[in-house]
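Dear colleagues,

As part of the handover before I leave the project, I'm documenting each prediction I ran so the next person doesn't have to rerun anything. This entry is a single chain, and its sequence is reproduced below.
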Amino acid sequence: MNPILERIRRSNRLKLCAILSPPLIFLIIFFFFPFTFVFIYSLGMVDYYGNFVFRITLKYYSSFIQLKGITTIFMRTIYIATVTTVLCLILGYPVAYTIATKASERYKHTLMMLVIVPFWVSFLLRTYAIMLLLKPDGLLTNMINTVLLKLGIIKEPMMLLYTMKGVLIGMVYDYLPFMILPLYTSIEKLDKSLLEASYTLGANPIRTFINVTLPLTLPGIIAGSLLVFVPAIGEFVIPALLGGTESYLIGNLIWTYFLSGRNWWIGSAISTVFILFVLAVTLIYIKFMAKGGGIEF
């Protein structure tokens, strides 16, 4: 055997380095390097001709803070990402629970395949598909209006396309599989003897779910919530296609500065602040939920 491979085989530290090296190299090349350039641009260390200059300025961060309506856009982005995550959890948990606990082994793989199938289609094509369903005479719009009118919730048909409601529907439609997959994995690994013990001790199904199932599947909830929240908070395709002026998000603002306005400096400042904010929220969320779920970090 090759001496180097033999040394790696005998050393746990070298094994760990060998396993982690490919993803770390990938992250360094495709995330950290690009983010470093964005950060350099945000500090004004690149002039309008693309030349590196030895000076640092915070004027682009100041310009970003002083942008008209930036607080509204920022809060709207957080609101839509949060509501999308909550809706995906509410809709995804029953689906994942039913597949993991109620479906027979024969049909589990088929049902999970149906959940994964949307990933085989382009994200943009899926968004255009929901756009057709949400137009005034679209199938989904007609169904929702018919149900709400019969229940007396609304008095006249409502518009879904180019509204905040349409954006939320599109977000849930596109990101729901990201919630179902980790939830299914977590519920599938659930120790069924604990549920039986809960029933034996006199707990009803609701108390068993709240006190046993939910806490034990918290890692899946955390993973699914992060997989939905993080991309949803930076989304710009869905609001651009399904929303109007009232659903303009941070992702659309960054896109405008980089590609339409050609102002990479303010765009980089917005991106830097946004990335740091998402990172902080993610770390706080993981720490809080992990403490509640008994997971130590």
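The two ends are 38 Å apart (CA to CA). Residues 1-57 form one domain.

All the best with the project,
I.
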